[in-house]
Design a protein that fits this description.
Elements (H helix, E strand, L loop, with lengths): L2 H33 L3 H39 L1 H28 L1 H8 L7 H13 L2 H17 L3 H25 L3 H26 L13 H31 L5 H37 L2 H28 L1 H9 L6 H32 L5 H25 L2 H22 L10 H27 L1 H5 L4 H23 L4 H10 L1
Length: 514
């Protein structure tokens, strides 16, 4: 895969992810209007977090990172052998997921208590347990989807898997519209919509894999040498994924005693996940199979070019988004969320969390850029060790600062520990081959990208002050926010082009490849 083709693939995945995040934002705007930041919203957010937390632990945090490099290498040699290996992995993951889903559903009161001990003794606890027993089965469907998506990505079929998250959010939106029309209980509607979305996602991806010739059929689990090796590689990645999820649990524990705090963090999370998902998911999804193929072929120079172009594109899109999330956090949350049951105090609290998350956005993306360097070499132990240190730091900051700064300690801990994780990944990558070194183009453009971000930040700050009355007016605020964002985009890309942070020829080359 040439660097320009790599960028094209990143843009493909990023485009679908952008649609998904946009639909997810629309979903959360509707949830905020229907539920606000009250007990039902807190309870559903915890119940929805649980299957997604385990999904990242099993599928995205372990199987995908171990499975994709092994599968991509087998695909270079014998496609039939690759299909056999994928089928064994699918059956092994299915058996594991069924067991975890059964245990998790039975242990739901303990899981809710672990996630949100502050719920104990009020209505949110029983609501979260009830919702959780409905939503937890989603773990099976979405984790198997992640494995099938890895197969499609190894074939360079990024669009099919990229569409699936859009489908999930469309199902949620339709469910809320139907519930509002029929007068159904909104919390229960959202809970039951969760497994329905999982079925839809897995079904769509199953058909896409079938079309490229892959057949997955249930079979008796057989511990073949390949499956044993997959488990050995996945185990450290699974532990690393567990560490990341412990950080999430710590954040929820810190926030749970304050009613509305979990919802504030969740709504802020949705906004910063928009650029994070678009860039980090796209870059990480494309880089891992590409680096795995290059390592097998001994193409160190091509690997370095792919790593540098992925890093350049990631930072060119992430850094301005981070500055914008910090500078205009309050206008964003006020205009997008403040309506119905979501009031001004909810907007202020969500904006605070959003600004803190924004400061960590480049770190979250850089992790996705650096981790494929390790996973492509089937090295899952080093990221695990790094994640352990980041976990200890996250817990120390969250628990230590929560008596002083309240719920925002959870967001602050997440951001600071993310930067520590990046520092460790960068230091660890220095002992690798040439792929991890920055080339002259990246060294030249990074300072210019930073300068263009500063120009954009100053422009946004001044414009937000001047447009404050329009941003607060109900009839004008949507247009005012759109104008503010458009001004930020123009100032960034205009100053970036003048400073040489990026060139029009790069975009023309991408267009020709399309």
């Amino acid at each position: 895969m040439k660097p320009i083709s790599l960028i094209r693939s990143i843009v493909t995945v990023g485009g679908w992810t952008l649609l998904s995040r946009g639909a997810g934002l629309a979903r959360d705007l509707m949830m905020a209007a229907y539920l606000g930041a009250g007990p039902v919203a807190d309870a559903f957010n915890v119940a929805f977090t649980l299957p997604n937390m385990f999904r990242r632990f099993f599928a995205e945090g372990a199987f995908s990172q171990a499975f994709v490099p092994m599968f991509a290498r087998k695909l270079q040699g014998d496609e039939a052998e690759a299909q056999r290996f994928a089928s064994e992995a699918f059956n092994g993951l299915t058996a594991l997921l069924l067991l975890v889903t059964l245990v998790g559903t039975l242990a739901m009161p303990w899981l809710v208590w672990l996630m949100a001990p502050g719920f104990t003794g009020d209505s949110r606890f029983d609501l979260a347990v009830g919702f959780g027993r409905i939503t937890f089965v989603y773990l099976c469907f979405i984790s198997l989807f992640a494995l099938l998506a890895g197969v499609l990505n190894a074939y360079g079929r990024f669009a099919e898997a990229g569409f699936v998250p859009v489908l999930m959010n469309l199902v949620f939106i339709a469910a809320m519209l139907l519930a509002g029309w029929q007068g159904w209980d909104m919390g229960k509607t959202l809970a039951w919509a969760t497994p329905v979305t999982g079925i839809a996602q897995l079904g769509f991806t199953w058909v896409a894999a079938h079309r490229i010739g892959f057949r997955f059929r249930p079979a008796r689990l057989r511990l073949s040498p390949d499956l044993k090796r997959l488990a050995a590689i996945a185990a450290p990645a699974m532990l690393a994924g567990g560490v990341v999820q412990i950080n999430l649990v710590v954040g929820r524990q810190v926030a749970s005693p304050i009613e509305g705090a979990i919802s504030w963090l969740s709504y802020a999370d949705r906004l910063y996940q928009l650029p994070l998902g678009v860039v980090a998911t796209a870059v990480g999804t494309v880089l891992l199979p590409d680096l795995s193929r290059r390592l097998r072929a001994g193409d160190a120079e091509g690997g370095r070019a792919s790593f540098n172009r992925g890093t350049e594109l990631a930072m060119a899109l992430t850094l301005p988004a981070a500055v914008a999330l910090i500078v205009i956090a309050l206008p964003l949350t006020t205009v997008l969320y403040q309506r119905g049951a979501f009031d001004a105090s909810d907007s202020a609290a969500t904006a605070l969390a959003l600004a803190i998350y924004g400061a960590g956005l480049p770190a979250f993306v850089l992790q996705k850029v650096l981790q494929p360097l390790f996973f492509a070499r089937e090295d899952t132990r080093s990221p695990f060790r790094y994640a352990l240190l980041a976990m200890v730091l996250n817990a120390a900051i969250a628990y230590g600062l929560s008596p002083v700064v309240g719920f925002s300690a959870a967001a602050l801990a997440t951001t600071l520990s993310a930067w520590v994780m990046v520092a460790q990944l960068w230091w660890g990558s220095r002992r690798m081959g040439g792929e991890a070194r920055a080339d002259d183009r990246l060294k030249s453009r990074m300072p210019r990208i930073l300068l263009a971000c500063l120009v954009m930040g100053g422009t946004l700050w001044g414009a937000a002050e001047l447009m404050a009355p329009a941003l607060a007016a109900h009839g004008l605020r949507y247009g005012a926010l759109a104008g503010l964002i458009a001004l930020g985009i123009l100032s960034y890309f205009g100053s970036g082009a003048l400073l040489g942070a990026f060139r029009l020829s790069d975009l023309k080359g991408l267009r020709r490849q399309r």
